[in-house]
Amino acid sequence: DAKTTQPNSMESNEEEPVHLPCNHSTISGTDYIHWYRQLPSQGPEYVIHGLTSNVNNRMASLAIAEDRKSSTLILHRATLRDAAVYYCILYGSSNTGKLIFGQGTTLQVKP
Amino acid sequence: DSGVTQTPKHLITATGQRVTLRCSPRSGDLSVYWYQQSLDQGLQFLIHYYNGEERAKGNILERFSAQQFPDLHSELNLSSLELGDSALYFCASSVLAGSYNEQFFGPGTRLTVL
Description:
The complex is a heterodimer of chains A (111) and B (114). By secondary structure, chain A is mainly beta. Chain A is 0% helix and 45% strand. Chain A has no helices and nine strands. Chain A has strands spanning 9-13, 18-23, 32-38, 45-50, 55-56, 61-64, 70-75, 84-91, 105-110. A five-stranded mixed β-sheet of chain A has the order 1-9-8-3-4, with no helix packed on it. Chain A has a four-stranded antiparallel β-sheet with strand order 2-7-6-5, with no helix packed on it. The N and C termini of chain A lie far apart (38 Å). The relative contact order of chain A is 0.35. By secondary structure, chain B is an all-beta fold. Chain B is 0% helix and 53% strand. In chain B, strands 2, 4, 5, 6, 9, 10 and 11 form a seven-stranded mixed β-sheet that branches. Chain B has a four-stranded antiparallel β-sheet with strand order 1-3-8-7, with no helix packed on it. Chain B starts with a strand and ends with a strand. The interface between A and B is medium-sized, with 26 and 26 residues.
C-alpha cells in the first residue's frame, strides 16, 4: 500500500488559515488523495479528495503538487471545532475498498 | 450526522462470549465497510461489502465475520471474545465501491470485554 507522511502535530490560532502538508512520493497514477478527520469521541469524517487538480468544497481546499508527490489540505479560517486528527490517505486500485489510516496530524486550535 | 447508524452504542461483555454489531448505511449506499480502532493499533480496516458481496478483507481475525443483507444493512459478528478485542468499531458506507467515493462513517460501537 502506498504510504503517506504527515507531521505528528500542528498548532493554529483561531480564525487563521491552516496548511496541513502530506507527502506521498510513491503515489501511483490511479491513486486518489483523500483527507478525513476525526474529532474527539467521534467517527472519522470525510473532508475532501482529489486526483490531479486542486479541489475546493465548503469545508476545505486541497492543493495537489504538479508531480502529485505531495498535497496540502487548507482550512481557510480555523475554528475551535476544527481541532481533530487529520488523515491523508491514498486510495486507489491497489486498495480499493479499504482506507488505510496512518497516524495523522493532530491539529490544535488556540483561541 | 452522517446518515450511517450503528447499534448498540456501547456493549460490555465477558471473555469467550459472542456479540453482533449492526450497521445501517446511508440511504442508497451499496457499500459497507467495517473498521476497528484501538489505542495501540489505531484505525484498522476489517472488511468491505458491496451490494451483498464481500469485496475486500483486511486483517480481520477468523473469530470475526460479517455479512451484508438484501436490505443492505450489515452485521459484524465477533466470537470467542478476548480482552484485546475491546475497541471502537466503526461502520462506513459509500454509494459505490470505487476509490473516487468518499466514505461516511457512523458514530461507532464501543465494545468492552471484561
